[in-house]
Each structure stands twice: as structure tokens, then as C-alpha cells.
Amino acid sequence: MKQILLITDGCSNVGASPILAAAHALQEGITVNVAGVVDYGTIGELGGLEIAEIAKAGGGISRIVGTRQLAQTMQMMTRKTVVQTIQQAVNKELKEILGHDSLEELPPSQRSKVVTVVDELTETTPLQVALLIDASASMKPKLAAVEDAIRDLMLSLQARMGTSELAVFHYPSRGSSEDAVLDLNWTSDLSSLRSLFQRIQMKGATPTGPAILKVIDFFRYGTLDGHQSWRQNAEEGEGMLGDYVV
Asked: Gene3D superfamilies, per this entry (predicted)?
């Protein structure tokens, strides 16, 4: 399963709509969750509305949190969307095989067996989480909390039985107001995070939509420039995703 976990205070102001970008991610089989760390007042209200719409379009969930609750919220959202995705797939299979629309329609004995399978799949299904950090100037006071939250998220992913990988991106880049930067490639190694935040420089613009599109490219091609890497090309021939994305 593939997820984008966006951390932002909302109010994107450069480039493509982040709501449309999130919808595109969902079409690619990538769920978009959003943890909103917003300010008070009108700007915070507008940011909160955008955050909710991004998650809705991306098939995920959103939460508005303070910096103290950020770590717990990120873990909750990641796990909850894994469970929801698996339940949706199970319900689809139940309808096709048994003619039931949902798990709740099964007799208690059968329901118990299916719930056990869902729980097992939640812990064992391979998971990739692309963490996308809003590094606009307004997020600067919140960066320390984001750093702690990422470490806690990595620990929770390591506790799963299945393969869990984390990649970290921030936006905008130093050279372009609409580019995302890959800070950490797919890893399950917690030590890789030690020097991560020393490389992030905060800037003024908030190009959330273009950044989401860049991360979609990374899921698809293994790069941020929209072109397939030579390794994937050699392995998959036609350059399409070879695995099934839940």
C-alpha cells in the first residue's frame, strides 16, 4: 500500500490545485492523508478548509492538531487508512464471492474469521509512506515538532510485522518555488533521520499541489523529474508500475 502523508498549515499559493493533485494521487492508488498544523484566525480557518478538501480528494483523512499532538496523529492516520483500505478490498471480495456488500452482513462466526484476516493484513501488508513536509516560512516555528513526530512515526512503522518504508520530501526547493526536494529515499532505518532537518531551509511560497504531483512521479518512476529511472525501465520493460497498488 502507498500513502502520502502531508504536513502543512494549508493555504497553498503557487501552482496547481492541491485538491486536484490529491485526486490524481488517488487515481494512481496512493492515499493522501493530511496533518494540519494551522494558525489561529482567518488564515488558519482557510488553511483548515483546504486541508480537509485535500484529504477528501485523496481518499484519506485529515486532522487539525497542535504541535504536541502531531506525532500521535500521524501514527493514527497512517494506521487508520491502512485498515480502511484493507476493509474496502475485503468488502469488494465479499460482494463478488458471497454476495454481501459489507463485513457487517456476515453471520457472526464468518465475520470473526474475516476480522482476524483483516487484522493480520493490517500488520503484514507492505507499506510505503511518503512524508511531504510544507517548508514554507510560516511552518518554521513548527519544524522541531515535525522532526520529533517523524521519528515517532518511524518507530511505529518498525513495530509492524510487514515491510514498512518511509521517504521524506519537503517543498519548495531552493531553486524553484514549485519543486519538491527528496530528503530521504525509501528506508526503514531510523538512524537515517539524524541529519535530515539540518538540510531543510524554509522559504516563503506554499506550492502544495505541484509538490504532491512530484511525489506521485516518485512513486511511479523512482525520480522527481517525471522520467523513469534506468533501473525501473530495465526491470519493468514498458515503464508502468509492475505491482498492484491497493
From this structure: von Willebrand factor, type A domain
Strands (E), the chain: 2-8, 30-36, 59-64, 127-134, 164-171, 181-187
- Closest alpha carbon to 17 in 46, 44, 53: 53
Domain that holds residue 78: 2-236
* Assigned C-alpha cell, 33: 492523508
53 found inside a domain: yes
Q: Say which CATH number the domain at 175 has.
A: 3.40.50.410
CB 67 within 8 A of CB 57: no
Task: State the total domains in the chain.
Answer: 1
Query: Per-residue pLDDT for the chain (246 aa), expressed as one digit of tens each?
Result: 899 999 988 888 888 899 999 999 999 999 999 988 876 655 567 778 899 999 999 999 998 877 677 878 888 888 888 877 777 776 666 666 656 556 666 677 777 777 787 788 888 888 999 999 988 877 877 777 787 788 788 888 888 888 888 999 988 877 666 678 888 899 888 777 666 666 666 667 789 999 999 999 999 988 877 654 433 443 344 332 333 233
